[in-house]
Write a structure and sequence with these properties.
about 800 residues; mainly beta; 8-stranded mixed beta sheet; 49 strands
Length: about 800
Amino acid sequence: MMKQLAFIFLVMFAVSAAGQQNLDYQQPPKEILELVDVPLAPSVIMDEDKEVMLLLYRDTYVTIENLSRDELRLAGLRIDPVTNIGSRVRYYNNLKIRWLTGDRTAPVQVLGLPAEPRLANFTWSPDQQKIAMTHTTADGVEVWVLDVTTAIAKAITPDMVNANLGNVVNWFSDSQHLLVKMVATMRKPLVDTEQAVPAGPTVSVSDGRLAQNRTYQDLLQNKNDEFNFEQMAMSDLYKVSVDGTFEKWMHGAMYAGIDFSPDGNYIMISTIERPFSYLVPYNRFPSVTRVYTSDGVEVETIVEVPLIEDLPKGFMAVRKGRRIAGWRNDLPASIVFAEALDGGDPANEVEYRDAVFHLDAPFEQVPKLLLKTINRFSGIRWGNKKVAIASDYWWNTRNTKTYLFNPSDPGETAVVIDDRNYQDRYSDPGSFVMTRNEMSKSVLALEGNNAFLIGEGFSEEGQFPFVDRLNLKNLKKKRLYQSAYTDRMEELRSYDPDSDRLLVRIESPVDYPNYYFRHLKKGDLDQLTFFENPFKSIQDVHKEVITYQREDGLELTGTLYLPVGYDMEKKEKKPMILWAYPTEFKDRTSAAQNTQNPNSFTFPYYGSPVYWVTRGYVVLDDAAFPIVGEGEEEPNDSFRKQLVANAKAAIDAVDALGYIDRGKVAVGGHSYGAFMVANLLSHSDLFAAGIARSGAYNRTFTPFGFQSEERNYWEAPEVYYRMSPFMHADKMKTPLLLIHGEADNNSGTYPMQSERYFNAIKGLGGTARLVILPKESHGYRAKESVLHVLWEQDQWLELYCK
């Protein structure tokens, strides 16, 4: 009788899917629900000396009511017009402190917090004794300060802070004052764009220059949007004392970046300027960067940036003029910036792409050359006056170089100490260990001629993170530590050469990640946190990383989960869910590398397929889907062929293990993974069903490039056509569940992509269901939405896969 009832329900579900449905939010089965609605362990932040641990607690999800507040979408921003902060900020609602020196006690509750905390923007003071943060009230944003020695927090401003452009709280060097953005006194009431009577048409002009921009969302659309953006972006700057007194420091402007010099005597401030654009977001509007004294006296204009609508073609294109301006962390007040030597056009062949200059206070002299980089400059890690490490990269070849140079002697040739493919994870030397200098700035941790590196440690044998000491004179390395775990995963978070101590995080498939001190000399572990596994119902699930080959010999991997209670001796054939996301490579060697660790904690989140191990499914998660194009060939030239080959290899591999019924395999993906799903269902008969969330399906809607495709539609129309599932909707014969956030703001994946694709499938007689989630963006945040998505996916899988 129960089977008959279930069959009748599934038939009703299938029939009703053919028309419109007005559903209330649904919940998934109990087995899944109990894994979703669990309290999270706190996030952790620590002071530089690792003496204080702040535990930050938050709810896993917000409510749909939270997402339904008024929201302005202006120039790439999403703003709550009442509170003057991003409308989709993730808040913490409780804080605890644990001191890590002396006699350790259990975490202590922070006192003085507001009744209903909505905390964000945490910033340590230079002396590491206080933490500034924002609290969002019903009417605005306040600045609060936490004294870490007493564990007491208090508000120091009224709720008039303007956090719309971020970078809202900055400490003065005395650790007693902060520079805070406040709502401008000259702000005018906003225009109601729904009710405003137009004064005329909106006109855009092309003046004959190339302006090949991505399809950005939430752009300005008219003069009323321009007006509202300016009002919401405009702030006054106030100097606020930790005792709560404050004074206006600078009058209204659209303040963006704020950055104190290491000695605290100067402040670099960027402001957004007009004219605005209807083609690009606010970070490409004109801007001016000026230096002021800490008393607010203007010293010098450093950078003037025009409106950036017409960059040359290519991912490595940059604007002309000074860019990436910032302070040298090893000197009191010296500015560094880069300039393109190829005119910003990657098509121009030059010996060096960029030059890096520095400019000392008072910033009036001619800038001095520091070094030139072969690829596009990406950053510098400062050590001292004679030691610095620079890096560059070039997307087209996936090449990155690391340079050791003497910033005090530009005539001394920079030494390339690393030259590699940045997608080659096996050869990754790691990241340089940093420390805090006497000016409270991050610099290289140096011990005589030695620097230190922390690496992830991926290899053919598995993942074994390491610490290396690098002699900067002879470039020889000595391994100081390498994790040897084969039954758990160790992540190296930081290293202190003075104490020879590592901060690590250790986890296993059943043990929640916890923090430890690892003392290298003593060889012992000191546990700092004791977080429990909240997912007990799946802790005994079998998990392994499997390795298999594609038909062309390329080695692939995926993380395999077997259903709860699965008998590996009996090997009953079960339905399977394959979940993946394609990645482009320029070489087969990097594409074949295994970067999955079977010892990572099994952590189901809203988008995870792992929930379905509780429903009798085998799950192959994070299956490798490399798309390779070597030499002159681009990866997307053979996208479809490689996509199908990846999928077939994955199914063949799990089928060969005897776990699955290969006639009952579903495929799922999110964003570019959804695009993958639609292509697989259109061009193969490998799957019984598909789930595609927040994807793009018609590449002519993104004509100036997408994902890692650099060519525009008119250069490679056949590639755009072949890769667009919309163009092949007549081939879609496999049931497809489409899910999309109504307010998706990701470039290229606007909701119309799913709506038009669904209409095409329906019009051509295919089987599909389209679910539009109110108020949700590219990722889903409301608890009601997440539970409903899990319900939809479960119903679809039960109907078409089981």
